[in-house]
Amino acid sequence: MKIAKWAVGLAALTLMVEPAVAVTLSSKDRARVARAAPGDRDDVRYCLLKRKKDARKGTVIGAAGGAGAGVIAGGSVGETLLAGAAGAVAGNLIGKGQAGGDACDRVLKRNP
Length: 112
Prior knowledge:
Blueprint: H1 2-17, H2 27-35, H3 41-72, H4 77-98, H5 101-110
Helix pairs in contact: 1-3, 2-3, 3-4, 3-5
């Protein structure tokens, strides 16, 4: 039961700390914004930031969910950590793929 309390505490701490981390664009993404058509620059910047933010949020939620599932299933510490890592990877991919919707998909496809 100690592991369960520890995992829940860690998940809660991660959810509290996550909003404090600023999302910034990499040099590659800044170059992509600069290459975009002048009318699309704000949209491209927004979509790239949204993708990064949602990927980070998905990572945190996936890690917490995976670790929680590992604890509920009665796994050992190693199995719980492995479930948390798998959840983090899945959450990252899902969060990044769902960011911005169809409008962002069109804008980013138009401005490679």
